[in-house]
Every structure is written in C-alpha cells, then in structure tokens.
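Q: what sequence does this backbone want?
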C-alpha cells in the first residue's frame, strides 16, 4: 500500500490528529507546529521532501524543498495572504483548497450579534458604562431609542456560506426579508456545508441581485452584510455612491475584508450620518491604527478581526480536512478548490 505523507503545521490536538489518521491507513500524518512568535511567512523548515499533502496557513516559499507536494489545505477561508505575497504556489500545479464553510456558524452568529448591538445602541451603552454616568432621564429615550430587526430588510453582499447562515437566522429567527447579491449568480452553495447550517439550495432570499444591481439592493436594505471575498473586482466595492444611496437609518456590517469598503468614505458617512452605523471586524490596515477616527465614532462598533474565534474552529477544520482527504484518496473533486481567475 502506497503511503501518503501529510504535514500539518498548526497546533491541532491529538484527538483531532487521530481523526485525520483514521481516514485511511495510507496516511502518515506528521504535525510540526509553528511557534507563537512565528512571523507567518514561511514553513520551509518543517519539510523533509516527501510530503504529498500540506495542512496549514502558509506553504514554503521555496517549493523545491517540497517536490512531491500535490495539495495544500488552507486553515483560512481566503487566499489574500498568498496573493499579497505573490506566493510561488499560485503559479504551480499544486492544488489549493480553503476552509470556506467552517466559518458559517461562528461568523454568522457574530454578524447577527453586531446587527443587534447596532440596532439597540449597545455601543452607546458601553460608553455610558465606561463613563460611570447614568444618562439623565430626559435624554435616555432619545439616546437609546433602538430599532427592531423583525420585518426589516437585510441585503447580503456575497451569498456564500456565512451569508447563507446569516440569512437563515435572520429569516427564521427574526422574520426579516432577505436579499442576496452574488458575483456568479449561483444560487446553490457548491462548497463545504455543515449539516443543518445555512441555505445550501438558495431557497431563503426574497430577492436575488446581480453586481450591476448592487445600488438598488443597498437602497432598499435596512441592514447590509458584507460577506464577499476581497478580489480586484470587489476592492472598494462599497464607496461614496453606494453609501449615499443607503437609508439614513440603515446599518452596515463587514465581516469579510477591510478593503471591500472604502474606509475613508465610510468614516465620512458615519460622521455625517449618511447611514446610522457600522459594525466592523475587518479593516484596510490591521491592527487598526490608534489614530484612526473609527475608534471614537459613537455609531461604529469595532472588533479586532475575531469573528470566527470560538473553541470549535479546529474541530470544524478537522471535519472539512477529513472529508477532503477521503475525496483525494478516492479521486473525487476536492471541496473549496481555489479558482485563481476569481481570486478565491
């Protein structure tokens, strides 16, 4: 029986590694973990030269040290970290798959939490708590007057696994109207889907929109979720024209990538009340600089790129990797195979 060496460069627990090994006796699974101080640029030091499969965040810069490498499963949903470095693996024949799909539950719930927090003025409550000063009775109603999600319209820019889970919660939990915009026009989710999660067949949206109809969707949405990959086609997708067509009572939430919204324009929109507020987990520059005006805006809710941070991330990643390993060994198409022309 031919042995296939699998190198895993993250810190998976032994029980998770055992699940990977249990996929097939063909697999020789080796974990060589990056350290806390790892700079995120290279994993070449871990290679012996006989690895066929790599699981991790970053491949070796010098692919000559991995002559047998045929497939890399990424720990991330996107490939931006490879694109910005113009990584040689992008020009190779090595297959790349992402972890898209495992973020649907944690980031989907996080997006809903941001929407609720913005709607009910939670950022103002936190600032009141920090100040230690109870808002005077005469001003309380006006200061904290919120809005309800029930019956409102949610426009989702990028109807992938995360957008579909947000749609499920919004529609089934809050009775919201859901509008979906996709780049491809594809209604079915062709990637990895957890059982019972999201909207695999695209049955939930009350309306579908193409890229050219984006402004139309934004204009009728009370909440807007940005959940599309960052590519050349989506960079600054939301700019001044898009923010100005939104309702003055609407909120925007971005859990995708910072470059999708023109940040300088968003700051103006929040300061001048073109829109009611924004929930942001991602930014053009991270960490968000201390002098960035977003920190001080009362209608902005800021998070440090942690929307997927729950204890279940690696378990979900293991489930996906095991499924793709079974497909690889069976000669079937891998889930979440990167299309370099699309950039994700």
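A:
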């Amino acid at each position: 029986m031919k042995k296939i060496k699998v190198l895993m460069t993250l810190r998976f627990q032994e029980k998770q590694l055992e699940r990977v090994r249990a996929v097939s006796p063909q697999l020789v699974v080796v974990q060589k973990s990056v350290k806390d101080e790892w700079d995120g640029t290279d994993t070449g030091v871990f290679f012996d030269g006989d690895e066929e499969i790599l699981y991790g965040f970053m491949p070796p810069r010098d692919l000559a040290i991995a002559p047998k490498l045929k497939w890399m499963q990424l720990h991330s949903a996107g490939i931006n970290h490879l694109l910005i470095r113009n990584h040689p693996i992008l020009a190779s024949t090595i297959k790349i798959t992402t972890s898209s799909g495992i973020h649907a539950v944690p980031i989907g719930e996080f997006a809903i939490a941001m929407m609720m927090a913005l709607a009910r003025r939670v950022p103002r409550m936190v600032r009141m708590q920090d100040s230690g000063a109870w808002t005077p009775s005469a001003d309380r109603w006006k200061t904290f007057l919120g809005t309800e999600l029930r019956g409102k319209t949610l426009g989702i820019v990028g109807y992938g696994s995360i957008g579909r889970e947000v749609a499920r919660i919004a529609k089934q939990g809050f009775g919201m109207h859901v509008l979906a915009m996709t780049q491809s026009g594809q209604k079915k989710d062709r990637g990895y889907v957890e059982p019972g999660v999201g909207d695999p067949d695209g049955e939930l949206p009350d309306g579908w929109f193409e890229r050219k109809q984006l402004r139309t969707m934004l204009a009728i949405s009370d909440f807007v979720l940005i959940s599309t990959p960052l590519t050349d086609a989506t960079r600054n997708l939301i700019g001044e024209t898009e923010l100005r067509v939104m309702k003055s009572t609407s909120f925007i939430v971005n859990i995708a990538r910072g470059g999708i919204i023109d940040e300088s324009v968003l700051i103006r929109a929040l300061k001048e009340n073109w829109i009611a507020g924004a929930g942001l987990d991602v930014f053009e520059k991270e960490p968000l600089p201390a002098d960035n005006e977003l920190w001080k805006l009362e209608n902005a809710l800021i998070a440090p790129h942690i929307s997927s941070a729950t204890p279940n991330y690696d378990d979900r990643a293991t489930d996906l990797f095991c499924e793709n390993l079974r497909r690889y060994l069976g000669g079937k198409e891998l889930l979440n195979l990167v299309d370099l022309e699309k950039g994700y």
